Amino acid sequence: MMNVFFKGESVISMTYFIRLLAAFLAATLLSASAAAGEGLFSGFKTGGDSSPWHISADSLTYHEGQGCYSASGDVEIQGHGKRLLADFVRFCPETMEASAKGGAFLESGQDVLSADSIDLNLAGRTGTARRGEVFFHESHFHIAADQIVKTGENSYLMENAGLSTCDGENPAWKITCRSLDVTIEGYGFVKGAAFRIKGVPVLYVPFFVFPAKTKRATGLLPPAVGHSDRMGFEHTQPFFWVLGENRDATFHIRHTGERGEMFGAEYRHVFDGRSKFAARLDVLSDRKADTGSAESAENWGYDDDDFDRPNQDRYWLRAKHDQALPGGVFMKLDVDVVSDQDYLHEFKTGYHGHGDTQAYFSERFGRHIDDYNDSERISRIAFDRVWPRFGLSAEARAYDDVIQRRRSGLDETLFKLPGIRFFAVRRPLWNLPVYGETDAEFAHFYRSEGMSGTRADASARLSLPARFWDILNVEASLGLRQTVWNMENHTREGVDRGEGEFYRTVADAALHVSSELFADWALGPEGASRLTHRMAPDVSWEYAPELSQDRYPFFDSSDRVDAKNGLSYSLTHLFMLGAEKKPRDPGAAPEWETRQIGRVKMSQTWRADDAVCFSTDAESGYEECGERGFSPISLEMSAGPFQNFSATADLTWSMDGHFFTQNFGVSYTRPGWLEISAERRYSRNWSETIFSKARFQLTDRISVFARYERNLHTDENIDSGAGFGYKAQCWSVDLGYRKQGDDRRFDFKVDLAGFSDF
């Protein structure tokens, strides 16, 4: 056996040959298997790297007449974490042709290519690998073809190819095709494609075209299929359209057997790191309506309101936009327009449903949309400018009451146009120990039919904070608020109160006393861990006089001021467990890892007068929200003594010995084996529900899951379901059943490893 060692450029032609060979194979494998992710051997380069290469062969020859190098007999070329094995390797620098024959085996890390032979034309960047097989370890893709031909710089042809993420000679599933002609960043043309289960073809497609993009690609997305009592059979097919590097759109058709066809669209545009826009629109011409009859109400209505839903034209438009503007101004746009009060109940879950939209907007924009059961939808556009000490904002807002719009026939939509707000943050006044802050707003409210007018609202607060004995924090504050309305017409409770100006002046006072105490206990040998107890008592008194406000206009909650005259206290205990960690650098100070293992908070209020508070539900606009004396005691508790276990509880207990509310919850997770949680929620004379869900991994392959929610007050099931999952080496399946109220749903999901789920 002959061993040869090369370093740097001592034999430039052979080193160049090895690097170009590996680079070509990397490009071939990457492009021929775009679905498998990044290619093999991307670390090979054609110059600038002086790392050594090791070559061993029975013989190494230079053919002077041909100008070619050849190595034969158990050839092994190794370096840079790569290894090439073959019976024979040949390279001709003048023609830039290379070949490896006799069980060519190329390895990079855990990725492997094997082929009977490889012929390359490095000048033309073409080549052929015969009877090649590729394995990508990270994605676990197996790709095999009778012939892989690189026909151009970015074009490839594969004959009799097969792809799977399953191991073994007879994989559980495999995708095969007679030929695949693909151009990277272009399209692929497939002939004779078949999806096979254990070698048996179950789906055949004679010809299809797909986008071969390494970036985002236009094309069909995985479909969604389901069945429920209200919808019947459902099939949703989305189509993704790339409009540019920073813009794209999705269109979908949702077929429902009972309700008809729904058409949806989504548009996304990212302008820069701070500026972005997203909008979604869904439209349905519903075959069913809640006309008020007992049958239609039961089948197509919802019983959380007393209103019918006779319309069949149904839609939901929602959008958000963040935009950084010149001068430090920032714009935010929120749009939320829905056809009827039942739409978001109907499409609370699923593709483009309320939950999906809520999660998307919260993640992308950090802002929520109104709850699915809120019949008043708010749309707004706001411009904000914030300085270190001041802030200025201007907004336009629309309050769309869906029920009122559908039923009255009058356009009484309330617009806040404009609303201008100025505020000054809390800061010391001159050199005094007094702090001041202000907040002022001017708003014009408009209805095409109904009450309209303007409102100017300004408030100021002076605070005097002090600290005694380095342990007690005391703060006294006084506030003054002045509100002026100028009404074009003013109607309250059916009484026309005319036009003109209305004035309101309110003063309030507050006293706040708080402290914070700590205690540490060393635990374990040499104090390797410690327990910290933090106790925070808090006492506050607030006063605001009770005013007769029936004569004042009402546009939003800022038009009402709640009366206050009471003393509140709270006592919070926090328990933290810290453990010493080994420092990363020898000789460095030890690091501590701390987690909260317990929290207890008790609070209560004593009212000097009967409290009357503003309420949108009360007929007069007010309701009694507390009697003179002590309020119920509120107790909040949470515990996490173990890494994967947590328990929570919150209670309110009245002074006459009754619980108003009792809520308890526990959860335990053992990663890869068990997830379980349970809750009990109780409100006196109102509701009592229990909820639990669990998922058990019975074996390495089989798991079961279940959920159950019941209203014990009405003795009715709210939500229940169960199912099982089976996970093999390269595929998995979930089958589940769910019943919510009168609606029953079956879910079936198949996941092929390496592909999207169906």
Automatic annotation (TrEMBL):
GO terms for cellular component: cell outer membrane; transporter complex. Residues 1-36 form the signal peptide. Transmembrane segments: none annotated. It holds the Pfam family LptD. GO terms for biological process: Gram-negative-bacterium-type cell outer membrane assembly; lipopolysaccharide transport. Keywords: Signal. Residues 313-685 form the LptD C-terminal domain. HAMAP family: LPS_assembly_LptD. This is Putative LPS-assembly protein LptD. The lineage of its organism: Bacteria, Pseudomonadati, Thermodesulfobacteriota, Desulfobacteria, Desulfobacterales.
